Amino acid sequence: MSELDEWQRRVDAFWAAFDDSEPERMRAEMRALVGERPAEDATALAEWGSVHDALGLEADAVGPYRSALAAGLDPERAHQVTLQLASTLRNLGEYEAAVELLTDLEAPELGDAPAAFLALALHSAGRADEALATALTALAPHLPRYGRAAAAYAAELVGDAPE
C-alpha cells in the first residue's frame, strides 16, 4: 500500500468515526492528517474544507474547497468538491454562485445529487418553477409509470412544453 493510500485509509477511518458533537477534536484530528500532506495537496485541501463544512463552519470551508479545485483534483473528487462548494455557498446565501456551479456539473458517478442540489439552490434563489422543474426532470426517469408526464410538466414549468 502506498503512502498516499495509507493516508486516505486513515482519512476514511476519520470520517467513519466522525462526531460533530466534538468539533475541536474533529478539527484537530483532521488538521493532523492534512498536516502530513504538502500544503498544496488538493485532496488534503478538500478534506480540510469538508471537516469545516461538516461541523457547520461553512464560511471556513469555501477557501479550502476553492483551493482544492484550483490545485487539481481527479475528476470524481472534483465533482464531489464542486457539489460540496455549491451546497456551502447556498447555505451562505450565495444562491446564484451555487446555481452557476451546479448548472453544468456533469457527474454521472453522483447520480441525481447535482440535480437535487441545483433544485435546492434554485429554490433558495427564488426560482421556484425552475427548482421544481429540475427536481421533476431528475425524478421522471425513476418513475415506473407517469415518467413521461412528469417530464412534460417539468418542461411546462420552464416554458419548454411542446406546442
TrEMBL record:
<dbReference type="InterPro" id="IPR041656">
    <property type="entry name" value="TPR_5"/>
</dbReference>
<dbReference type="InterPro" id="IPR011990">
    <property type="entry name" value="TPR-like_helical_dom_sf"/>
</dbReference>
<protein>
    <submittedName>
        <fullName>Tetratricopeptide repeat protein</fullName>
    </submittedName>
</protein>
<feature type="domain" description="Tetratrico peptide repeat group 5">
    <location>
        <begin position="44"/>
        <end position="157"/>
    </location>
</feature>
<dbReference type="Pfam" id="PF12688">
    <property type="entry name" value="TPR_5"/>
</dbReference>
